[in-house]
Amino acid sequence: MFAKSKRHWTAKAGLLAAGVMLWFGMPASAAPALEGETELSVTADEVLVVEFTVTNEDPMDTVTLDLLYDKEAMTYMSGSGGDNFDVTGGNGSVQMTSSPEDTEAVFTVRFRGTEDTQTTVEVASCTAVVGGEETDVLTGESVSSETGTGEEDEEEDESEERASFVIDERTFYVRRPGDMEGFDVAHLDIQGIDSRVLKHNTLDLYLVYLRSDNGSFRDYFVYNPDTGNVIPYVEMESGTDDVIFIEKDEDVEPPVRYTYVDLGWGQKYTIPAYKHVTIDGVDEIFDDTNRYLVYGINQDGEKAWYSFDYDKNSLQLFDTYMYDGEQIYIEELETKDTAMRSEMAYQLERYNRDMGTRLFVILVLVLIIIALVNVVVFMYLKMKKMRAPLEAEPGTDEAEEGEDSGEYIVGNLEENETDFSDPDEREETDELEIIDLDDADGDDR
């Protein structure tokens, strides 16, 4: 009896629960929710960190968050959002995409204040893909393929052949684009495949919607039919113009002293840009500022170079004529400087050459003088040797005088008598007998 009573109350409890469920409706899984601070207090030159969190009961495949901010009050610096994260920011907007594969996705954005003020960050849109279905987080409604990217229609025909591009070593496929203000749907032959694209209402400009092979990155790119290349779609304000970055035409040359660089845009893409350099011999030294030249087209179809300040995230029309004039003046100064340097080098070389010649001549003259001095000294010594035997020896002066006078001394030399005597002495003591040899001979006859 007790068991029967227990089964009776169990049945009543089941009926009561069923009634409650019928009355209040079956419980449904909650839609993704967004939390974050939008009212901000900004201080000039200080970094402000803003955090937004998207949560859901089931793991989310991808989450996309678009923010709008006052670019006069703040400057975008960077963003983060976990694994498989991509961000594009600047000029008053920030778009972040993450593939959390989790029930929570946290986005962090860093701004730098430009003035002390109160400002607001507006959430332009936020979507989450759960189980292949995209949901608008702000409204909780499913995103229609007619107003979105049209990927729900594409899911029905995944085997369809699609044009593809390799960006940062990852393959991106052309997908069906959504609606965009100022653009109309068109078809282009891309890589031999009929592809659906967006064409600008007034400009000869095409956009393609690309999705990475793993679905983590989905963005619009500007497509150039002439070259078949794509670059990230970026639109910025420059004064009163709305400028879209494009690939430069083949016949357009960048200004002198600018060289090509890949300007990082977000954490995944790059934009073709040019950086000012100075030439030091053969080396290129890049300008140390974060200013770049980009090529763009405004709303009137006018193509021109624009100076992009990466730090301030600002765009300004580049005055090509003034810059070219300055470069002509600089080149003239450099030409004069080069000519002066060449002239100085020539004069220095000439001076060194002349001085070498003079030194050689002086050396030759010195050698000749040394040789002449040696000859003179040698001849002097030789002549001195030749005069030495002619000089009289001591004690021979009187004999030489006798010989020179021509006097002869005759007589018989007796023993113990000197051979010679002084003629004067002889005159005083003895008179010499003069014999006439001729008479003597005559007498004998």
Description:
It contains six helices and 26 strands. By secondary structure, the chain is an alpha+beta fold. Strands 12, 13, 14, 15, 16, 17 and 18 form a seven-stranded antiparallel sheet that branches. It has a five-stranded antiparallel sheet with strand order 6-7-4-10-11, with no helix packed on it. The chain is elongated and about 145 Å long. Strand 10 (122-130) and strand 11 form a beta hairpin. The longest helix has 68 residues, at 320-387.
What structural keywords apply?
about 450 residues, disordered N terminus, about 40% strand, Immunoglobulin-like
Blueprint of the fold:
Elements: H1 2-24, E1 33-36, E2 39-42, E3 47-60, E4 62-68, E5 74-80, E6 86-90, E7 93-98, E8 102-113, E9 117-120, E10 122-130, E11 133-136, H2 151-154, E12 164-167, E13 170-175, E14 183-190, E15 193-200, E16 206-212, E17 218-224, E18 229-232, E19 235-238, E20 241-245, E21 258-265, E22 269-280, E23 283-286, E24 291-297, E25 303-309, E26 314-317, H3 320-387, H4 397-405, H5 423-429, H6 437-444
Antiparallel strand pairs: 1-3, 2-9, 3-8, 4-7, 4-10, 5-8, 6-7, 10-11, 12-13, 13-16, 14-15, 15-16, 16-17, 17-18, 19-20, 20-24, 21-22, 22-23, 24-25, 25-26
Number of strands: 26
Largest sheet entry? 7 strands, antiparallel
CATH class of the domain at 30-141: Mainly Beta
As a percent range, the share of strand residues is 35-45%
Radius of gyration: 59 Å
Task: Identify the CATH architecture of the domain at 30-141.
Answer: Sandwich
CATH fold node name of the domain at 30-141: Immunoglobulin-like
Overall 3D form? elongated
Q: Number of helical segments?
A: 6
